[in-house]
Design brief:
The mean pLDDT is 96. A hairpin with a 2-residue loop joins strand 8 and strand 9. The strands form 2 sheets. A 7-stranded mixed beta sheet has the order 1-9-8-7-2-6-3. Strands 4-5 form a two-stranded antiparallel sheet. By secondary structure, the protein is an alpha/beta fold. It has a single domain, classed as 3-Layer(aba) Sandwich (Rossmann fold), CATH 3.40.50.300. The longest helix is centred in the last third of the chain and has 20 residues. The protein is globular. The chain has 7 helices and 9 strands. The structure holds adenosine-5'-triphosphate and magnesium ion. Magnesium ion (MG) binds next to helix 2.
């Protein structure tokens, strides 16, 4: 498919870029915190469902280490950084998804923001051929964070969703204050944690098959 820079694609046009076939297809959506990855993944799933192509969202977020583990490692303050995830389990489950025939169940954990912990088997992938895997670190190499390089090999394609820094900042500040932090705490979390992670993630952008930024109801190709 021809890709023209600055072209704005609808979610339906993006869905059409996912090839037809019988084998399971894993599409990654990488990008910085607050870029809109979860939103795009859900929109794609809904669009694919309408087109008679069952799809499911399998977020990377469910592989957060539990708070008890982070506390024991004195890493609670760094929650969200690459080494605060169980990347080995994530890679193993991606491989399991690829190896399991469509129609057989594969449980997938979800992250529950209300309790700030993962929930095992939050979603069961079964009849969906297309799996949209979304998360921050899908395109990292081991030089950036040990263990993460194996993720890309388990994905059939990986897109990168970007957003301007001021947009990310505003969304993240809003999320953290809505989640109960004071404006000062929210601001510190954004500068000390989220935007530092965003810098690491930005270094992996060039590895994406497609780079997108939201534009109205659509997504602009970069
Ligand atoms: N295309 C869009 N246009 C306008 N607002 C959007 C768009 N996509 C997402 N948003 C808003 O941006 C915020 C962050 O979106 P979302 O939770 O999907 O980001 P994310 O990349 O999954 O973040 P995280 O990495 O932290 O999970 C939400 O408030 C969402 O409503
Ligand atoms: Mg998300």
């Amino acid at each position: 498919m021809v890709t023209r820079a600055n072209e704005v694609l609808s979610v339906s046009e993006l869905a059409q870029r996912i090839p037809a076939g019988d084998e399971r297809f894993l599409l990654g959506i990488a990008g910085p915190p607050g870029a809109g990855k979860s939103t795009l993944a859900q929109r794609l799933r809904d669009e694919l469902a309408e087109a008679g192509r069952p799809a499911v969202v399998a977020p990377m977020d469910g592989y957060h280490l539990r708070n008890q583990v982070l506390l024991a490692r004195n890493a609670m303050g760094r929650k969200g950084e690459p080494d605060t995830f169980d990347v080995a389990a994530f890679v193993a489950d991606l491989r399991l998804l690829r190896e399991t025939p469509v129609g057989s169940p594969v449980p997938w954990p979800l992250f529950d923001r209300a309790i700030d912990e993962p929930t095992d088997g939050g979603v069961i992938v079964r009849d969906e051929r297309i799996v949209v895997v979304e998360g921050n670190y899908l395109l990292l190499t081991d030089a950036e964070a040990p263990g993460w390089a194996e993720v890309r090999g388990q994905l059939d394609a990986c897109w990168y969703l970007d957003a301007p820094r001021p947009v990310l900042t505003e969304r993240l500040l809003h999320r953290h204050t809505a989640g109960g932090r004071t404006p000062e705490q929210a601001s510190r979390k954004v500068t000390d944690s989220d935007l530092r992670n965003a810098d690491l993630i930005a270094a992996s952008r060039h590895r994406a098959d497609l780079v997108l930024t939201a534009a109205g109801r659509g997504y602009r190709l970069n």
